[in-house]
Amino acid sequence: MRIAVNQADIPTQRVANFFLEQARQEGVALTAMKLQKLVYIAYGWHLALTGKKLFDEGIEAWKHGPVVPSLYHEFKHFRGAPITAMSVAYDYDSDNDYIPHVSDEDAEAQMVLGKVWNIYKRFSGSALRNKTHVEDGPWHRVYDDNRMGVNLRDEDIAEHYQERIRAYLAAANE
Fold this sequence. Notes:
Blueprint (H helix, E strand, L loop, with lengths): L1 E4 L5 H16 L5 H19 L9 E3 L2 E3 L1 H7 L12 E4 L4 E3 L8 H14 L4 H8 L5 H5 L11 H19 L2
Parallel strand pairs: 1-4
Antiparallel strand pairs: 2-3, 4-5
Helix pairs in contact: 1-2, 2-4, 2-5, 2-7
């Protein structure tokens, strides 16, 4: 599926394609749910480590965890099957499709995405879903069965992942 954009691609597509390319290279099955959770976790790590957003699109609290709506709609047709295509954008100015990528010059994003991939690639989409449903976590704080489209709060995400990263570092030093 292609998303029409004018000039610049949607930054979430770049992040999704990073994980899709890693999965392709390593032979790791990547479902839509697993992709959603990896993109969310990468957003959290980037926010916690740099104080900056990885992308500007809102992350919503849906029944099965945090979701980036544009990625959901782009990949929902895969359902629970592994995704076999990259995220493709269309540039009206050049009248061409293209595959957005994280710039090689963005060392900070490349480093964070690489760490997230190496830590979380072995988990299934369901296991990652469970990790995003923790008691008093960012999703848990805003999720309401009766309301759709509620965004997770960046301050909650940053705090949560700062705590997670501190716990990983402490465990590594034991």
